[in-house]
Amino acid sequence: MVEKAVVFLLMDGARGDIINRLLAQRQLPNLEKIIQNGTYSTITSTFPTATGPAHIPFFLGRYPGDCNIPGIRWMERARKTRTQSYTSPYGYLKGDGLNEDMGRFSKTIYEKFISASIFEPVSRGATKKIFAYGHFISHIFNTWTNFDRLGLDYTTHILRKKKFQLIVTLFASIDELSHRNGCMHHKVLRAYELFDNNIGKIQRLLEDQYEDYLFIITSDHGLTDTHTHIGLVKVLKLMGFSVRSYPLNIKNGHDLFVAESGNSMAHIYFEKGHTDHNKEKIKKKLSNIKGIDLILSKNGGIRINKGDQEAIIQQSENRYKYEMIRGDPLGLGSFSGEWLGENKWHEITFASNYPDSIVQIAQIFRSARSGDIIVTADNGYDLRTFEIPEHRASHGSLLKEHMNVPVILNKKIETGLLRTTDIYTLMNDYLEVI
Ligand SMILES: [Zn+2]
Ligand SMILES: [Zn+2]
């Protein structure tokens, strides 16, 4: 029997501004109660801001690029047989796929404590794992409310046993309903309220049965409404390249492979190797397309292009330098040319359009699976040509609307500027003290 526990609820795709609005309307009474005695803050997620990769910091305390997960899809360069691609068959986020693909660089928090993971794709080492097979059914039949109810039932069932030090549950309905309907649709707002109900039930159980507990409610990324699908694959095909992309990615041997994540970011790979000429041609073409935001590529550092602006990021051990070449694509001009550490850059960029951009751009390129070019879409746009059902909201980019996430804790703590990696430390420190 354990007397203290961490309960971590991931409210997939929940936006801080919508929570604020619903709090002001007194629509989230349970959350309101927790905030009164606890902490409510905004923290910085990681790039790409997509379900799966953006969960890694919570459970490993590391960035996805450092665990070799640059997105929910990528091209597996090392695999020389059959296809060289690796893209998500539907089970990727729902089964053990992500756990197996993550490099064993460090322990997950599950491996350190008696832990249960409910519907969460990052679950390596959990004592008890409940995979989200119902995700597929919900995707087909749009039964997200039932999916979350099932998550609540498992959570309360496990809490009553008092056997687990750490209980993690993913609630998916806010994200999924936002994609289908847009972020402010009444079904989405209802999903926030239902989530608040679930919080109330869990909170009461914790109060009744545990001597002490740390209750954490957070999100993996924001979401923005999408009015235009750019169709990155179509653009590249019109340039004369042969291109494959998910889900039609079976056969290799094309010029380019495109792998999107969250629909607002994509990796572009040259399957047969690249020439500088072709790389520059693609970058130039994309930089002139309305709705394309950042274009990132490696060349003597990491180049950042935005329209006709260009800058370069260099890394040396734990320090980074941002240098403007033309214009100031990340809006950090006054710090151009300075070598600064991770936390200093976090502080500088926290309130900018691209929170933590320097550190986040550097970390994704540390993954050998990253594309030759990475593209992000601007607010209101995404990169996909089509999707069933059609997406009316997207995430995945470095924009503040995707990078900033809310965090709510039942205890008062001095948060300062936190990233999602710091939540790992918070849970670990709490559980390590007997
Ligand atoms: Zn998500
Ligand atoms: Zn999503």
Number of helices: 15
Backbone shape? globular
The structural domain count equals 2
| Strand arrangement across the biggest beta sheet | 11-12-13-19-14-15-16-17-18
| Mean of pLDDT | 92
* Secondary-structure content class: alpha/beta
CATH architecture of the largest domain: 3-Layer(aba) Sandwich
Keywords for this entry:
single chain, 434 residues, alpha/beta, Alkaline Phosphatase, subunit A, nine-stranded mixed β-sheet
Write a brief structural summary.
33% of the residues lie in helices and 24% in strands. The chain contains 15 helices and 22 strands. It has helices spanning 16-24, 29-37, 56-60, 91-94, 97-101, 134-141, 144-161, 173-181, 186-209, 232-238, 276-287, 342-349, 357-365, 400-403, 421-432; strands spanning 4-11, 39-44, 74-75, 85-86, 115-118, 128-130, 166-171, 212-218, 224-225, 228-229, 243-245, 256-261, 265-270, 292-298, 302-306, 309-316, 319-326, 339-341, 373-377, 381-382, 393-394, 404-409.
Helices and strands, with pairings:
Layout lengths: L3 E8 L4 H9 L4 H9 L1 E6 L11 H5 L13 E2 L9 E2 L4 H4 L2 H5 L13 E4 L9 E3 L3 H8 L2 H18 L4 E6 L1 H9 L4 H24 L2 E7 L5 E2 L2 E2 L2 H7 L4 E3 L10 E6 L3 E6 L5 H12 L4 E7 L3 E5 L2 E8 L2 E8 L12 E3 H8 L7 H9 L7 E5 L3 E2 L10 E2 L5 H4 E6 L11 H12 L2
Parallel strand pairs: 1-7, 1-8, 5-6, 5-7, 10-20, 11-12
Antiparallel strand pairs: 2-22, 3-4, 8-22, 9-21, 12-13, 13-19, 14-15, 14-19, 15-16, 16-17, 17-18
This protein binds zinc ion (ZN) (2 copies).
The site of one zinc ion has 6 residues, from loops.
